[in-house]
Design goal:
By secondary structure, this protein is an alpha/beta fold. It has one domain: 3-Layer(aba) Sandwich (Rossmann fold). It contains 3 helices and 7 strands, in the order βαββαββαββ. The longest helix is centred in the middle third of the chain and has 28 residues, at 56-83. The N and C termini lie close together (5 Å). Residues 117-131 have low confidence and may be disordered.
Length: 131
C-alpha cells in the first residue's frame, strides 16, 4: 500500500503553503505521494440555464482566464518541486483538468483524506491509501 495526499490548490496565493503542508503530512506517511490538483472550473457549471446564456466567446474568455491561473499555480508547483529534491516525479504529480470541484474530488479522492485550501476555508487535511 502506498499513501497519498491529495492537495486541491485554489490559487497562487495559497498554493505554496498547501504544498508545504502536504509535504509535512506525506513525509510522516510511509512511501507517500503528493497529488497536486488545480481545477479549472468549467464555465458551464457556474451558471443556471435560467439565469443567462453562456456564449462561445464568453466561455472562451472564462476558460482562458482559468488556464492562465492554472499556469500561475503550476509555476508555483514547479518551483516548489525544484526546492524539494525528495519529491521527484514518482512521488508527486500535477493535474489541472477542466471540470468541477465536486466531480474531481469525488473521482480522485478515493481516500478519506485530502488537503484542500478552498476559498476562505482553512486547509482540510486527509490522507489515504491506494493499493
Amino acid at each position: 500500500m502506498h499513501g497519498f495526499v491529495l492537495v486541491v490548490l485554489n490559487g497562487p496565493d495559497t498554493a505554496y503553503a498547501c504544498l508545504e503542508a502536504a509535504a509535512q503530512i506525506a513525509g510522516a506517511m510511509n512511501e507517500a505521494r503528493i497529488a497536486a490538483l488545480y481545477i479549472r472550473v468549467d464555465p458551464a457549471s457556474t451558471i443556471l440555464p435560467s439565469e443567462e446564456v453562456l456564449t462561445g466567446e464568453r466561455r472562451a474568455q472564462l476558460e482562458n482566464r482559468a488556464a492562465q491561473r492554472a499556469a500561475a499555480v503550476n509555476l508555483i508547483y514547479q518551483s516548489w518541486l525544484g526546492e524539494h529534491d525528495d519529491w521527484t516525479e514518482g512521488r508527486s504529480s500535477w493535474s489541472d483538468p477542466l471540470s468541477t470541484v465536486q466531480h474531481e474530488i469525488r473521482t480522485r479522492a478515493a481516500a478519506p483524506i485530502s488537503l484542500c485550501w478552498h476559498h476562505r476555508r482553512a486547509c482540510e487535511i486527509s490522507t489515504g491509501t491506494k493499493q
